[in-house]
Amino acid sequence: MSEDLKNKTVVTVISRITERPQAKEACMVVIYGQDLGKKYNLDSASIIVGRSSKSDIQIDQESVSRNHCKLLNTGKTIILRDLGSTNGTYVNDEPVDEYVLRDGNLIKIGRTIFKFLTGGNIEHAYHEEIYRLTTVDGLTQVYNKRYFLEVLEREISRGHRYGRDLSLIMFDIDHFKSVNDTFGHLAGDYVLKHLASVIKERIRREDIMARYGGEEFAIILPEIDGDNSRRFAEKIRRIVERTTFRFEDTKIPITISIGVATAGPDTGGPTEFIRESDEKLYEAKRRGRNCVVA
After folding, report:
1. 201 in catalytic set
2. Which of 76, 166, 191, 273 could form a disulfide with 159 if both were Cys (CB 3.0 to 4.6 A apart)?
């Protein structure tokens, strides 16, 4: 070996950390389904979502394919790619093959809904979303039962104190079990969400619409008397009856039965008021459904 070769310095170039591709800071939060509120950080280059126990994010549901979709972190964007799943991957209720995710997007995989969060302060956004989940139903995006009961108690007290009108509408979807049995639970979820969206657009800012449970919903109508609440109930009944519910090219006929109660001087707490409205709702069902009893 020559003297020059012995004295030659070998330099290995090591890239600085700042020059390496950085993963985009982002996460998904479960807002509907099992593990509600669970946070999944998307800091890997590739993340598989599916039913398989080998998936990076496992969703153990029949409606989810073994390898359902993939999330790709390019360092600048997060790309969602469907992997030929049986029931599809949805972003904001639209089926996608490949989609560049944006902050606030709602991702539906099977019956589970995630909210995509990204930006400068992920932790702050995550905690805000967790707080929101204490008041809002993740599927329908209307208020949940807990928040509804809090507001109803407050409005009853306010009505007694100031002598103001207060009405309560309770309604549910006619033959909803047969919708699930005939068209599947994914179709049932679509019906619930679309129904809530259609009616929510028709209520006032001060009204409170909530998912009371299953296929049953409620609307609190502050400062609305019996006659006006009955007319409003009939209006939303007709709107639902005329609305087209179409899931994967299949039209699903949907109607609702409605019960309406108006608070009086002797109205007790929320339980009594709800019972009165519920009794009217079941009377509507006994009369053949798709009608209003007030």
Report:
1. no
2. 166
Could you give the residue range(s) of every CATH 3.30.70.270 domain in the chain? 145-287
Q: Provide the 3-class DSSP secondary structure of residue 169.
A: strand
What is the helix (H) or strand (E) element at residue 86, kind and residue range?
A: none
Pairing of strands 250-251, 26-32: unpaired
pTM as predicted: 0.85
Among 3, 19, 123, 215, the active-site one is 215
Q: What is the pLDDT of residue 16?
A: 43
Average pLDDT along the chain, 294 residues, taken 10 residues at a time: 52 42 82 95 96 97 97 96 98 96 97 94 93 96 97 95 95 97 96 98 97 97 97 98 95 98 91 96 97 97
Question: What fold characterizes domain 26-134?
Answer: Tumour Suppressor Smad4 (2.60.200)
Distances (CA, A) of 123 to 28, 43, 71, 127, 210: 12, 14, 20, 6, 28
Q: Provide the pLDDT for residue 22.
A: 52
Q: What is the CATH number of domain 145-287?
A: 3.30.70.270
CA distances from 67 to 71, 84, 219 (A): 12, 9, 40
% helix / strand / coil in the chain, to the nearest 5? 30, 30, 40
pLDDT for residue 268: 87
Q: List all residues 6 or more positions away from 182 whose beta carbon is below 8 Å from its beta carbon.
A: none
